[in-house]
Amino acid sequence: PGELPGGVRPALDVRLTVDGEVMQSDTTADLLFDPVALVEYVSTIVRLNPGDIIATGTPGGVGHARNPGRYLLGGETVVAEIDGIGRLENRVVKERSV
Fold it and tell me: Is 63 inside a domain boundary?
């Protein structure tokens, strides 16, 4: 509980931007499954250790569902951020042909 702002059921803003344009935005309060229930369930299948991550999926707004579709291009910068937890920034690299 002390590790997350707001305790074990926080309402944290989640955002994904591509070159500064917001593509996805939501809050952890809108997760389909409660974080506590997720940990309880997953721990019945596998031992959880400090630092383990449980991926919960993605907020609405994925590129494939847009009209027209929006796909990542080489050189773009993707930033995923959760308030109070952190930020992950990646630059897209065009796939090399083999």
Answer: yes
Q: Is the model's pLDDT at 6 over the cut of 90?
A: no
The answer to the question of residue 30 being in a domain is yes
Spatial distance between the Cα atoms of 33 and 91, rounded to a whole number of angstroms: 31
Q: Is residue 2 part of a domain?
A: no
Predicted structure pTM score: 0.75
Decide: 64 and 23 in contact? Cβ < 8 Å.
Answer: no
> Measured between alpha carbons, how far is 81 from 46 in angstroms, rounded to an integer?
27
Distance CA 61, CA 54 (A): 21
Cα–Cα distance, 1 to 17 (Å, whole number): 28
Q: Helix, strand, or coil here: 24?
A: strand
